[in-house]
Design a protein that fits this description.
Shape of chain A: elongated
Number of domains of chain B: 2
Strand order of the largest sheet of chain A: 2-3-1-4-7
Structural class of chain B: alpha+beta
Number of helices of chain B: 8
CATH architecture of the largest domain in chain A: 2-Layer Sandwich
Number of strands of chain A: 7
Number of strands of chain B: 24
Shape of chain B: globular
Structural class of chain A: alpha+beta
CATH superfamily of the largest domain in chain A: ACT domain
Strand content of chain A: 35-45%
Helix content of chain A: 25-40%
Distance between the termini of chain A: 18 Å
Bound molecules: iron/sulfur cluster
Largest sheet of chain B: 10 strands, mixed
Oligomer: heterodimer
Radius of gyration of chain B: 22 Å
Distance between the termini of chain B: 65 Å
CATH topology of the largest domain in chain A: Alpha-Beta Plaits
Amino acid sequence: MEKKLLLSFPPEATFQSFAYELVKDYDLRINILKAEIEIGKGGKLLMAIEAPEENIERGIAYMKSHGIQVSSLANKVFYDSSRCVNCGSCASSCPSGALSISAPDWKLKFDAEKCIVCKLCLKSCPMKLFSIEFTE
Amino acid sequence: MKKTVAEINEKIRSGKAVVMTAEEVAELGRTLSPAEIVEKVDVVTTATFGAMCSSGAFLNFGHTEPPIRMERIELNGVRVSGGLAAVDTYVGATDCNPERPDYGGSHIIEDIINGKDIVLEAWGKGTDCYPRRHVRTIINRDTLNEAILYNPRNCYQNYNVATNGTDKIKYTYMGTLLPHMHNCSYSSAGELSPLLNDPECRTIGLGTRIFLGGAVGYVTWNGTQFNTTKPNNEHGVPIGNARTLAVVGNLKEMDTEFIRGAYFEKYGTTMYVGIGIPIPVLDEDMARRVSIRNDQIETNVVDYGNGCAHVGRTNYAALRTGEIEVAGKRIKATPLSSLDKARRIAEVLKGWIESGEFTLTEPVRPMPAESAVKPLKITQVED
Ligand code: SF4
Ligand code: SF4
């Protein structure tokens, strides 16, 4: 699974030392999305990790034990329905069935509950109407 | 019973013409015979709204003082044709700046319709009569002398259904195709589609007045790659990509509700174009044609991951259920062209005709009875 985490570091902890452990000992694939850290002052870091759920849980417990605050972020898919032409291209690629288009009205329907945030729709909408937003 | 276009136009002018959309008349065809349909219906409106890459616009910028012979032209950083006299250009829908592939000619056309400002930069070598060598300025819909949409190939009669049999995602002009034939996409309005309601172009020819991008437009010629050699099924409908139309209209009068710039991932820019064509119900033959239903319109399923190999045959009624069967496998089927928009266009056109402001035209010249498409051969070129 993929999870987005917002980490807040206390001044005495810097990320560098943890990144290595997380990759090596917990087998997490890490992608840093945004970092605001000053050495010796602490800071915030937004990262995406991809790994089996239990590895992620163990990794989080490890970071917390070192004084890092960890909060997970939900990312949500949004689209600008006012510019939608109801072509159906996004629904074609949507693997979860969150996006669908069908008889009788052939207008796009988005069921956010079903979305697995695979982001294929970001690429497949020819009008570029999709975006991802992070919420805590 | 037989009717002429002139007689139908008389009825339109006096507000007595009976106009129906192609979907309505397809439904009527279940219970009424062609003879009854000619009696009852005068005009059938057909429509489509889909990606049509062979689209573009002629623009005339006007002359500067002193004038320039524009030989290299960029609009918002996109290189467009510099091969039309001094201050004319043609913006192709797929023109692009490789550095910014998701904004191209089709988006410039959309921006012009919306009245947005566009940066024009042009260079010329400087001549005795055109001494200026460079210009950089702002243009928009109102500063242009003419803005004429001219699309050399639109409105395909029928189109293949695309799937992908490989184990990798394919990003194509038929959308995102998931691996292992996980989905397929189709791009025709089926029974509402213009050329499927007049499959031999008996009433559609040069000069046919149409709905184009929200404005009145005209058919100017047979579209490029016009193909009459595709086999017809027993309902007289060609299977696969067959006839096409070249169309023209005043870009300044269009509405981005019905024409849109678009970008297909890893493919490039294209234009979604809305076209509506009225078809006069002249006789029983035309009545039979316009009553065509989705289950009678067939098309081929081809594998875009594998050189467009033929993998099956289906029809539009099956596609509209959201799932088709190909080689024993159920595949999710979704459209790429908008039926919702096509329906709206058919309704708008119906309204224009009912109000008496839009009359029908007879072709100035018919479409070619025979026309085949040649491939491009690669031959040895001497240096
Ligand atoms: S992110 Fe994936 S699952 Fe969610 S709507 Fe887009 S394509 Fe569907
Ligand atoms: S691909 Fe974009 S324009 Fe087409 S239906 Fe989906 S959101 Fe609407």
